[in-house]
Design goal:
219 residues; alpha/beta; 7-stranded mixed β-sheet; two-stranded antiparallel sheet; 27% strand
Length: 219
């Protein structure tokens, strides 16, 4: 039973941009075929919602290309009983996907206007298990910890220590780590007091602004 009407553009996006590049998790593929991505992109860019590219959503922020969303979600591997933290809500598209895959999601956005957009989009689709907070995402959200998965959707020079502290035993953290211009998609898996790191290719994200990220206005 699908919550949203099926759409040929979404089917094509999943088959040609995501499956063809090696994404295999059936739960992720199903959710990405179901969620109407164009709802999360303001005009006039919504006309390109299913193109293979990132798009602007206002206030200097972007929505990632569909494949990168799928790849980061597969690396995070959210389960139906998981508690997930997202850093950087953007327009709410990634949070919507996580909300349909996990038990509970906390997403943090530092820009109030962007947070308002995400909140409206999530409410429009009646996704009720996502808690949106306006704050410095580099500090995480200790009140909701520990998290089975933490997803950072902006470029960070290093993994913020508070997020490491809030990661549950057995948890996964996925983030673009590196400079302001180019980063390496990185996954950290926690096993007790040990952390195992793997790298998954070069990416480009807007910078993560905050106390444990990059400096910037409003940081």
């Amino acid at each position: 039973m699908h919550r949203f009407p099926q759409d040929d553009e979404r089917t094509t996006m999943v088959e040609h941009q995501i499956v063809s590049r090696g994404i295999k998790n059936p739960r992720i593929l199903s959710v990405m075929q179901e969620i109407p991505r164009h709802f999360f992109i303001p005009p006039p860019y919504d006309r390109a919602a299913y193109d293979d590219s990132p798009l602007p959503i206002g206030n200097g922020q972007t929505i990632s290309q569909p494949y990168i969303v799928a790849l980061m979600t597969e690396l995070l591997d959210p389960g139906p009983d998981d508690n997930i933290l997202e850093i950087g809500a953007g327009s709410g598209y990634q949070a919507a996907i996580l909300g349909m895959l996990a038990k509970s999601v906390t997403t943090i956005e530092r820009i109030p206007a962007v947070a308002d957009l995400a909140r409206a989009n999530l409410a429009h689709l009646d996704i009720g298990n996502v808690n949106l907070i306006i704050a410095d995402g580099t500090l995480g959200y200790a009140a909701g910890a520990p998290y089975n998965g933490i997803l950072i959707t902006a470029a960070t020079p290093q993994i913020p220590d508070p997020l490491i502290d809030q990661l549950a035993d057995g948890g996964r953290l996925v983030a673009p780590v590196g400079g302001r211009d180019v980063q390496e998609l990185t996954r950290i898996c926690r096993k007790g007091t040990r952390f195992f790191k793997s790298h998954h290719g070069g990416v480009r994200f807007v910078p993560l602004i905050g106390k444990h990220g990059w400096e910037g206005e409003n940081s």
